[in-house]
Write a structure and sequence with these properties.
This protein is α+β, with helices and mostly antiparallel strands. The protein has two domains: 223 residues; 148 residues, Aminopeptidase. The protein is 40% helix and 25% strand. Strands 1, 2, 3, 4, 5, 6, 9, 10, 11, 12, 13, 14 and 15 form a 13-stranded mixed beta sheet that branches. It has a two-stranded antiparallel sheet with strand order 7-8. The longest helix is centred in the middle third of the chain and has 22 residues. The radius of gyration is 23 Å and the shape is globular. The termini are far apart.
C-alpha cells in the first residue's frame, strides 16, 4: 500500500487533458478508480486547477486566484505549507481537489484548509458525479491521510477542518461523513428577485422602507449620495485604505482583534482587489456623500452569486443616517441589475442579515488526533469550540459577552 501511494505521489505536477463538459466529467468520475497525489507547490497545478474550477462544484473560496494570493501574502509569512490533495479518475481527469495545508499550533502542527482564516466556506472541489462514484468517502479519507503523512514536510498532529457547509454545489459535502460537530456560527444567503423594487418590498415592510427613504434624504443633506465602483488602481487602493481605517475603529470599539494588523492580511486584500487578473472575481464599491466615503464594501462574484465579504461605514456625523444600510441597498440593487441570482452574506450571525434572509445555513467542524501528541492537543480545541457555540447560540450570554468584550477593548491602550 505504501509503495502504491508513493507511486501515486509521483504524479505531482502532471497536467490534465483539456477541460471537459459537465456530462463528460460525470461519466469520467463514474468510471473512477481514484488516484491520489499531493501538491506542495500551487504553481505546479495552477493550469489544471483553474480549468477544474470552471466546472467543479465549489465556492469562490476554493478558486485558485483566492487561495494562491492568500498563500503568497499570508501563508508564507506564517509557515503555512500547502498540502493540496488531487484525486484523479483512471483517465487522468480530476475527480476532486481538496485544498489543505499544515500550519503551526502551540506544541505541534495541524492540518487545516488552505486559507481557512479568511475562507467563509471551506470544502473540496468536486467533479460532477463524485458522490455516486465514491460512496465510501471514509475509506478514501484514510488513503488521503496516508498520502499526506508520506510527505515529511507535511507531518501534523491534529486535523482541524472548520466552516464546512453541508453541500458543495449540487452534491453533499463528503467530509461530513467523518463525524462533524456544529460550528459556533451560521451563514446567511438570500435568493434575489427579478427587480430591486419587488425584492425590497418582499423583504422590508412599508414602514421600514419609509424610514429608509427618510434616512437617505437626511444623508443627502450632507452632500450628493453616489454609489461608486472604483476602477483605477490608485482609487482602488485608496478605497481599501478607507475601509481598513473604518473597520479598525469599529474593531477597537467592539474590543475585537483587528484582522488587518495581522501579518500579510492587508497586503492580501490590496493585492487581490488591485490585480487586473482578479477583476472577474472581485467587486469593490463605496457610498460617497459629497466628497466623503461614508461606506465601503469588498465583495466577490462567482457563478451567479454575490458574496458580501467585508463592509464598513463612517463613525462621523453621517453615521446617524445609516450609511451602511444605504450602501447595502445599493449593493443589492446592483447585484439584481447585473443578473446575480443569489446574495450571500457569508458566515456570521449579525442581526441585520436576518432582515434579508429566510434562514440560517449551518456550518460544521471536524477535529481528530493524528499523533499521540495530537490526542492531548485536540481536546482543548474541541472544548473551546463547544464553549464558543454555547455562548453564541444563547442571546443573553452572547449580549453579555459582547458587552464585556467592548468594555475591555475600550480600557485597553490603543496605538
Amino acid at each position: 500500500m505504501l509503495r502504491a501511494i508513493a507511486a501515486l505521489n509521483a504524479h505531482d505536477g502532471t497536467l490534465l487533458a483539456a477541460p471537459r463538459t459537465h456530462a463528460d466529467a460525470e461519466a469520467a468520475v463514474a468510471r473512477a478508480a481514484i488516484q491520489i497525489s499531493v501538491h506542495e507547490d500551487l504553481v505546479a497545478i495552477e493550469s489544471e486547477w483553474r480549468a477544474f474550477e470552471r466546472t467543479a462544484d465549489c465556492t469562490v473560496f476554493q478558486t485558485f486566484e483566492w487561495l494562491d494570493t492568500w498563500q503568497r501574502h499570508v501563508g508564507t509569512r506564517n509557515d503555512v505549507r500547502p498540502a493540496v490533495v488531487a484525486g484523479r479518475a483512471s483517465d487522468g481527469s480530476l475527480a476532486f481537489i481538496l485544498p489543505l495545508a499544515t500550519r503551526p499550533m502551540p506544541f505541534g502542527r495541524e492540518l487545516v484548509f488552505l486559507g481557512t482564516e479568511l475562507c467563509d466556506y471551506n470544502g473540496p472541489m468536486l467533479a460532477a458525479g463524485f458522490t455516486a462514484a465514491v460512496p465510501d468517502f471514509a475509506a478514501l479519507w484514510r488513503r488521503i491521510g496516508a498520502a499526506l503523512k508520506a510527505h515529511p514536510r507535511l507531518r501534523y498532529d491534529v486535523v482541524h477542518l472548520e466552516k464546512m457547509p453541508a453541500s458543495i454545489g449540487s452534491q453533499p459535502n463528503p467530509l461530513l461523513a467523518l463525524g462533524v460537530t456544529d460550528n459556533p456560527s451560521g451563514a446567511y444567503a438570500t435568493a434575489l428577485g427579478e427587480t430591486w423594487d419587488a425584492f425590497y418590498a418582499a423583504k422590508r415592510s412599508s414602514a421600514t422602507r419609509s424610514r429608509d427613504r427618510g434616512k437617505r434624504k437626511k444623508l443627502a443633506e450632507h452632500g450628493a449620495v453616489a454609489f461608486v465602483e472604483p476602477q483605477a488602481s490608485h482609487d482602488v487602493l485608496a478605497t481599501i485604505d478607507t475601509l481598513v481605517a473604518q473597520k479598525s475603529r469599529s474593531f477597537a470599539r467592539m474590543g475585537v482583534s483587528n484582522i488587518f494588523a495581522r501579518p500579510g492580511y492587508l497586503d492580501f486584500y490590496r493585492a487581490l482587489f488591485s490585480d487586473p487578473k482578479s477583476r472577474g472575481l472581485t467587486h469593490l464599491s463605496r457610498l460617497d456623500c459629497g466628497a466623503e466615503p461614508v461606506a465601503v464594501n469588498l465583495g466577490l462574484t462567482f457563478r451567479g452569486t454575490y458574496y458580501h465579504l467585508q463592509a464598513s461605514h463612517t463613525d462621523g456625523d453621517a453615521s446617524r443616517f445609516g450609511p451602511g444600510a444605504a450602501h447595502l441597498h445599493d449593493l443589492l440593487r446592483n447585484a439584481i441589475e447585473r443578473g446575480f441570482v443569489r446574495y450571500d452574506f457569508t458566515i456570521g450571525d449579525e442581526p441585520y442579515k436576518r432582515d434579508w434572509c429566510d434562514g440560517v445555513t449551518p456550518l460544521y467542524d471536524y477535529y481528530a488526533a493524528a499523533s499521540p501528541r495530537g490526542a492531548l492537543l485536540c481536546a482543548p480545541l474541541a472544548a473551546k469550540t463547544r464553549i464558543k457555540r454555547l455562548i453564541k447560540q444563547n442571546p443573553a450570554l452572547w449580549d453579555a459577552f459582547r458587552h464585556i468584550r467592548s468594555l475591555a477593548g475600550r480600557m485597553m491602550p490603543r496605538r
